[in-house]
Automatic annotation (TrEMBL):
PROSITE patterns: ALDEHYDE_DEHYDR_CYS (PS00070), ALDEHYDE_DEHYDR_GLU (PS00687). Keywords: Oxidoreductase. Its EC number is 1.2.1.3. The active site is at E253. This is aldehyde dehydrogenase (NAD(+)). The keyword Acetylation does not apply. Residues 16-477 form the Aldehyde dehydrogenase domain.
Length: 485
């Protein structure tokens, strides 16, 4: 793709409309540092139009009143449309945020398709209402759509995070205003085209690329019933505060500082490629990244040497090359953030074992070398704060109890792994780690299971039946007790 991808209209309530204002968003390639796309910048007035359309569609339109089977048919067409255009979708994501193309295909485009498929399976197994016995008479328990949803999504895995919100919201009968990140709005336009072709009724979906002002206006809107957000802890706190004004429901999927525990009896050769994937997928720009590696003192030097060798072999370069593992950071600011943390790590006394700078063979682009710090204490900033890049910390521990304590000694609790001699032992460790997701002797992310975090990693769950339930309200209807004979 060499031409600028340009859109001049907004998708509001299922229609392509002129924006309220003249401002635009330039999409800049993190590889070439040149403009590769341009879209309108949605203004607060556009958000008002989108909310009004969604409110009308929810309160009076057909979508919430359709049968579940009818909504499943439409959402199935959305899933199939995304699948048919998944290569184009992946290329757009790589163009916008520099994600290596192999990751854009598997973890971005096809994972979004898989999320729609998994959510369709969940929906097909649900009933709208069920009768239960109560203490004083029969009860009818109903599941109803929560209402108008504002879905605010990030730039790092845009389509996967959109699918985790849009699929259950639509199937539950909600209407949705999608606010994609200004760094990556182009794939959201492709999604809008797919949804339009699938036959979503008027008002059900709007797509508003915008920055902070419009986002703040949207999530604080009194006609929004639920906000579903993926992003930083700081932004999540602001959204929660704004939502409190109207008691708007929220789901917040926030940051992470996940630990990979390597036990004394672990098969390091089996663990190593999984650790590379867990730490450096999407160039380390992932909330679930394994950014703390906990090594037993007895094997610390061995693990440090093998990690250093493996990291040095990672290909840094053009994300369109299938051999590339590390692409650029999404923005120049994000690269500088990583470089600042590398400086802090050195100042704190950690040792750079691999990387630690900007690759010299690349003349353009916001690249950073995959970096490994050794001699890290868990109290250091580089071990406690989310860097969001290809920077990991190797931390020594003395015994298993210390490993568990260090893994749990974090403001975050999103993901993690353990590598043990047996799966049973690893599962014992997993039960003691306070995180929302965890992997034993593997590195997995499964959209069929609930995903979310403890502590500062968020509130609520996405994916699976639990994620679907977040878009429903529960109503209890008390039925008259049968007459006694």
């Amino acid at each position: 793709m060499t031409d600028i991808v340009e859109h001049r209209t907004l998708f509001i309530g299922g229609k392509w409309c002129d924006p309220a204002g003249p401002n635009t968003i330039d999409v800049v390639s993190p590889v070439t540092e040149q403009v590769v796309g341009r879209v309108p910048h949605a203004a607060p007035a556009d958000a008002d139009r989108a909310v009004a359309a969604a409110r009308e569609a929810f309160d009076h339109g057909p979508w919430p009143r359709m049968t579940l089977a009818e909504r499943i048919a439409v959402v199935t067409r959305i899933k199939d449309g995304l699948l048919s255009r998944h290569q184009e979708l992946a290329e757009l994501i790589t163009l916008q945020n520099g994600c290596p193309i192999t990751v854009s295909l598997r973890a971005q485009a096809l994972s979004a398709v898989a999320t729609f498929a998994a959510t369709l399976t969940v929906a097909a197994g649900l009933t709208a209402e069920e009768e239960r016995p109560g203490l004083t008479g029969p009860l009818l328990v109903r599941r109803e759509p929560v209402g108008v949803v504002a879905a605010v999504t990030p730039w790092n895995v845009p389509q996967l995070t959109i699918a985790g919100k849009l699929a259950p919201a639509l199937l539950a009968g909600c209407t949705v205003i999608l606010k994609p990140s200004p760094e990556t709005p182009l794939d959201a336009y492709l999604l809008a085209e797919v949804c339009e072709a699938a036959g979503l009724p008027e008002g059900v979906l709007s797509v508003l690329p915008a920055g902070r002002e419009t986002s703040a206006h949207l999530v604080a809107h009194p006609d929004i019933d639920k906000v579903a957000f993926t992003g930083s802890v700081a932004a999540g706190k602001q959204i929660m505060a704004a939502a409190a004004e109207h008691l708007t429901r929220v789901t917040l999927e926030l940051g992470g500082k996940s630990a990979a525990i390597i036990l004394d009896d672990a098969d390091l050769d089996a663990a190593l490629p999984n650790l590379m994937l867990g730490a450096f997928a999407n160039s380390g720009q992932a909330c679930v990244a394994l950014t703390r590696v906990l090594a037993p003192a007895s094997r610390y030097d061995e693990i440090a040497a093998k990690l250093t060798t493996a990291i040095a072999a990672l290909k840094v370069g053009d994300p369109a090359d299938p051999a590339t593992m590390i692409g650029p950071m999404v923005t120049e600011q994000q690269r500088q953030r990583n470089l600042d943390y590398i400086r802090v790590g050195r100042e704190e006394g950690a040792t750079v074992l691999a990387g630690g700078g900007v690759p010299q063979h690349l003349t353009s682009g916001w690249y950073i070398e995959p970096t490994l710090f050794g001699d890290v204490d868990n109290s250091m900033r580089i071990a406690r704060e989310e860097i969001f890049g290809p920077v990991i910390c190797l931390i020594r521990y003395e015994d298993e109890a210390a490993a568990i304590r260090i893994a749990n000694d974090s403001d975050y609790g999103l993901a993690g792994t353990v590598w043990a001699g047996t799966d049973e032992h690893g599962t014992e460790i997993a039960r003691q780690i306070r995180t929302g997701t965890y992997s034993v002797n593997c590195q997995r992310f499964d959209v069929a299971g609930p995903f979310g975090g403890y502590k500062n990693s968020g509130i609520g769950r996405e994916f699976g039946p639990e994620g679907f339930a977040a878009y429903q309200e529960i109503k209890t209807i008390h039925l008259p007790a049968p007459a006694r004979s």
